[in-house]
Fold this sequence. Notes:
Elements: E1 2-6, H1 27-50, E2 55-57, H2 75-78, H3 80-93, E3 96-99, H4 112-131, E4 139-142, H5 151-162, H6 167-170, E5 173-176, H7 184-194, E6 198-201, H8 202-207, H9 214-222, E7 232-236, H10 254-264, E8 269-273, H11 279-291
Parallel strand pairs: 1-2, 1-8, 2-3, 3-4, 4-5, 5-6, 6-7, 7-8
The structure holds a DNA duplex.
Amino acid sequence: MRIGYPCINRRIGCRSDRKFRLASYTEERFFSTVRSNLSCLRQILEWNVMHDIRFFRISSDFIPFASHLICSFPWQKRFADELALIGSYLSESGIRISMHPDQFIILNSPDQKIVARSIDELIYHADLLDLMGLDVSAKIQLHIGGLYGDPQESTARFIRVYNHLDPAICRRLVIENDDQRFNAADCLKIYEQTGIPVLFDVFHHSCKNNGEGIREMLLKIGKTWKNKDGIMMVDYSSQHPDKRPGGHAERIDINDFKRFLEISHPFDMDIMLEIKDKEASALAAVYLAKADPRFL
DNA sequence: AATGGTCAAGTCAGC
DNA sequence: GCTGACTTGACCATT
């Protein structure tokens, strides 16, 4: 079991998700931003290793505008060496990576232009992980998309698009239940028709479910991950007391997390903490897990 | 130097 | 039909 956090380390003093405005795009700006993101990612990863955190989500902004028309810079070639270097560090340190394209990436949109742009963005994600030389256990997690007033047809559209995707995307893509539209059971149905592993978001499941328990879901979902995919990834968070249902907590609720570990024991999984204070909660979670020999 | 409106992209609920 | 949430800060024009 690994524990990780997404994209940002708040105490290290640099960011690997720096970007800039489209209006100020220049090749120089692009180049220097990517270089700075590369250098910071390395620092974050080293900090993580020092603190026994071996699961990390790389921000989709790592290469800003990578899939945008404006970006004609051959970043794949220019940064191949640097990316390979990061990749060997990841492999030798046993760090697992995930990526999570954001809400604009929708494969089941009725609008072909949106689908085409989304696929371009997924190609960028796959390219990045490929250039790092990571095996296919490094995953790209995506929600199914919109309902468009007809969940069945929207699901069918997702599957049709998936069946025509580049294999470079397919081998890394996993689908995640969301808190409003497609729940874990919906994802499992899509798995049955496509074989796409399901990434279980425990918190989203508590927001939208068909009454299934967590253990029951973990048992089913664990089977959707084949050997080459690695052990299942799970997203964990808890409810922010003041926000709408689905709002992520500011800090980890350590008792709730402990309960989750106990409920999920002995399933082996890598847990991504989607909590606002990032590495701080990850430290607390790792500390807790280490204290109990059942979990490590 | 400080400020505050704005930022590539989509969907959907709520007004 | 428009705005805000999702996420989230930081960019950048204006003062």
